[in-house]
Amino acid sequence: MKQIPNLFxxxxxxxxxxxxxxxxxxxxxxxxxGDKGITTGLLMGSFFLLLAAIVDFLDGxxxxxxxxxSAMGEQLDSLxxxxxxxxxxxxxxxRLLEMSAADHPHAGIWWGLPALLFPCAGVWRLAKFNLDxxxxxxxxxxxxxxxxxxxxxxxxxxxYGTPAINDLVFNPVVLYTAIVIISGxxxxxxxxxxxKFKDYxxxxxxxxxxxxxxxxIAAIFFKWLAVPVVxxxxxIVSLIFKPNKERI
Length: 248
Description:
Blueprint: H1 4-23, E1 30-31, E2 37-38, H2 40-65, H3 71-100, H4 117-131, E3 138-140, H5 144-160, H6 163-169, H7 172-187, E4 191-193, H8 206-222, H9 226-241
Antiparallel strand pairs: 1-2, 3-4
Helix pairs in contact: 1-2, 1-3, 2-3, 2-5, 3-4, 3-5, 4-7, 5-6, 8-9
């Protein structure tokens, strides 16, 4: 019974591996409303990363349910996250950059290499988290699942978005900028809200409730575009409330 939470965590890794498999598979374009196209593999990759995020969110509950939290489980969680929210989103960025190179005949393999900065930053972030025992009810830097899910939303946004939004997703300048900003936020020491509840008082959870409200409103008005909108809101709300170990 004690290994059930660890097996649940490994399911996160399985979904991450399946995501990479679909992201990198060669196939014809599955055309979206804009001028560019999104492959079915990219859409499937985003779907499996969503499943990985759900499992990652629930594995802590499973561990507490079976009273089986352990140092082994913490290490497995980080290793699975490195694949599902580091390597897999990095491959999404690589594929998007690769596809954007169609408009640039002189682009070489270097065109997509900056995408590898994302998984590197993500693993660095995980190593910092594992060594810093303060990061339990607040984070230093954007957590890798939030960063990975934001990138995973890009193919879905391009597929369901307008031609203008589609062009933005395939714009290499936009992609390079996103890579630098999100990677920089992951390795930064910026105090970031944790969604874990230490207690259930309104005063202690005002920041989390505000973020939930923003998420609901953004989902209603922006649909899939809500994911990067909520990511930005996550950073702004954290800057406003400035979580730290004295306030938890």
